[in-house]
Give the backbone structure.
Amino acid sequence: MAIDATQPYDDDNIFAKILRGEIPNQTVYENDHALAFHDINPQAPHHILVIPKGRYVSWDDFSANATESEIVGFVHAVGHVARSAGMVEPGYRLLANVGKDGHQEVPHLHVHIFAGKPLGPMLLKG
Ligand code: AMP
């Protein structure tokens, strides 16, 4: 079910529970402002999610309201994870779904990192 990117932050969302340690995750990397872990339902040979530790619903919320240190920490985490996994030379894809038309399902900002095979065209037509 896609969410409304303008909704208030929901502390019961699944990624908030992961950040509080209430449900397990396969952590790849962590810094002061971000956590990276394997997607539970991978859509490519490598599929990692990077989330900010702060309470941000979406990319829109984060880009408007996060502090500079949160933004720097988050962006560094995404690049670090891809480099550390050896994704740079073969290439990889970043994706952040936002709101209903973006088909965002979890109301806590997450950037998907996909890699491990040629990923094809950016979007399906139609
Ligand atoms: P999105 O459609 O962009 O909101 O993507 C949500 C992503 O979260 C999907 O790729 C799910 O497979 C993933 N996901 C949902 N629950 C978990 C979980 N407990 N651990 C890891 N990934 C999850």
